[in-house]
Amino acid sequence: MTTTQDHTAVLQVQDLAVEVAGRPVLRGVTLALRPGQVAVLMGANGSGKSTLGLALAGHPHYQVTGGQARLGDADLLALDATARSRAGLFLSFQSPPDIPGVRNNLFLRTALNALRQHRGQAQIDAYDFLSAARAEAARVGLPEALLGRAVNEGYSGGERKRNELLQLALLQPKVAVLDEIDSGLDVDGVRAVAAMVQAQRERGTAMLVVSHYLHLIESLEPDAVLRLDAGRIAETGDVALARALAREGYRNGSAAVAQAA
Amino acid sequence: MPALQPAATPAPWKQVLDRPYEAGFITDIESDALPPGLDESTIRAISARKREPQFMLRWRLAAYERWLTMTPPTWARLQIDPIDFQALSYYSAPKSLANGPRSLDEVDPKLLETYEKLKVPLHERARLAGVAVDAVFDSVSVGTTFREQLAAAGVIFCSMSHAVEHHPELVERYLGTVVPVGDNFYAALNSAVFSDGSFVYVPAGVRCPMELSSYFRINARNTGQFERTLIIAEAGSHVSYLEGCTAPQRDEHQLHAAVVELVAHDDAHIKYSTVQNWYPGDAEGRGGIYNFVTKRGLCAGARSHISWTQVETGSAITWKYPSVVLRGDDSRGEFQSIAVSHHRQQADTGTKMIHLGRNTASRIVSKGISAGHAHNSYRGLVKVAPTAVGARNHTQCDSLLIGPDCGAHTFPTVEAARSDAVVEHEATTTRISEERLFYCQQRGIDAQEAAALIVGGFCQDVIDALPMEFALEAKALLAVSLEGAVG
Fold this sequence. Notes:
The structure holds two protein chains of two kinds. By secondary structure, chain A is of the alpha/beta class. Chain A is built from nine helices and twelve strands. In chain A, the strands form three sheets. A six-stranded mixed β-sheet of chain A has the order 6-9-10-3-11-12, sandwiched between helices. In chain A, strands 2-1-4-5 form a four-stranded antiparallel β-sheet. In chain A, strand 1 and strand 2 form a beta hairpin. Helices cover 22% and strands 34% of the residues of chain B. In chain B, strand 3 (131-137) and strand 4 (140-144) form a beta hairpin.
């Protein structure tokens, strides 16, 4: 996973260093994902997991101070946030914001059509869009009524996460970073995440899943488990690493791996 | 290099706003204009050109006498360069209309072209459906569409000049009853020199069969536009009226001082919508319209209902408070407003709800959006008279700020003479949220479109109150007005 010159990789991050408000958070992260690969990213609070996703997506508060990131042929770091999305990067937000007064279906259709235009595909009309959105909403367990309400406004935490899953399903990115998609979700919701990750994997989406929740991690059957510590990938392993971290905690991470091995 | 902006500069709203004002062209047409200056002879000349009856001339002269004793209001939060009222021309009409509006087939093609360019085609067969238009060019009406069809329903929809000539009894009975000549400096000036405007009369029990619309266009240089609109809805009638405005792009300020009066009798409903897109001036504040307007509706009858909905994106300075006097028992008044100011624009706008009758209710929704160096003030008065048993008001005042150099101000006043009055006020001020903008961008929506989405969402309640045709136009206009505001 951490080899630096993987020509089959769709996402390639090398020595990425990121500051937030002048404070270094990532100090040289290197990872690569091939199409359809699923990697789980674990790590203690403050280790930089969310920063990685937000920096890759181009959030203006996350200042890249070194390293590279490529998505396919695109130099991600040279693009603005919109262009990164259009290049195929999707970030599921840990706390998705609301957009008062903007109906969810308008927002989703605007996003989908912006991406379709970029991909040289025809615009989807309101009617076709609605039937697609309804079908996907049912799959992720988002009440259909929420399509007609303002984006995330008055949604429960779980509904916001299901709305993120819906967007992932509709927008069909090449690479998806799911930042604690399971937090706030009930058992059925977590199942929907696992099913969605499986479906995306089959269509070739590479995914980086940030989670602390062993049950979800196991059900994802990830290709790799990475532990982020103090802004660097400290360990790489498989589900056994996740189990050990869940059992022993992050502070004893390395020792845990030794025991598990 | 990563395309990152420092946090203080909200990135994407920038490019859009510097798009030129699309209605800024000038129609090259010969005009019959009065020389600049204002005295009694000016008023007599206007009245004579319009072949007005004696009562009208007397009324104008009385208003002029009153105006001479008045001074411009200074209480608004506005910086207004002094206006030289003697440097303005008070009457300008295309020569081809010298004998009053004729049938549309005879109207100068240049004028028709002007309205085509503004996307207000006046040929009835060219119109999609359902909206009758009165087009006012400088001081006179170019023509009114669908007049015959409306007459069949008993509705009178014509220019004010036509009404003065052909329905003098209605004009004499109602003109100045809602906005008295001495109401304020600009209303007095308008009463003295008004040139044209629209007149609507809806008889008892009639639901006006189509939307009525006026389109005001200032073309001539150094000319004030003083239009006067009067709408009378008899008992049980219903009318929806739309007003649109544009002006050429000129370097000097132009004065627009209109008066609109509405009268709703028992059970009548008047819905008045405005999309105001007067030339706002350039980024440095050169040029643009001074929009000093007095609009007031009288809920004269029981259960009558008047609603004002306005989308104000243009003008260098807006001074405007569409108000409702709730005299009839159980009458209702509404004011729903979106005011956008960008660059050096100033807007001081709001409403007055005067509760006189029993069980009267009013609702105010104000959305102010400021960008660039603009200042936007909401100024409202809710007054509950001793007679107004059971009066209720709800006011919601939201401000959206885009960028660090603009301002939003709220001046709500409540004067309640009764302890049983229920008066509620909610106010919010928000900055355009970077998190929301980033969320949209992360989904592939570019910054300009994201900004338009977010602003549209902020204004959605008010846009929903507009008639369908105007809602789309208003959304487009909002997007254009804020072009370049983010970035």
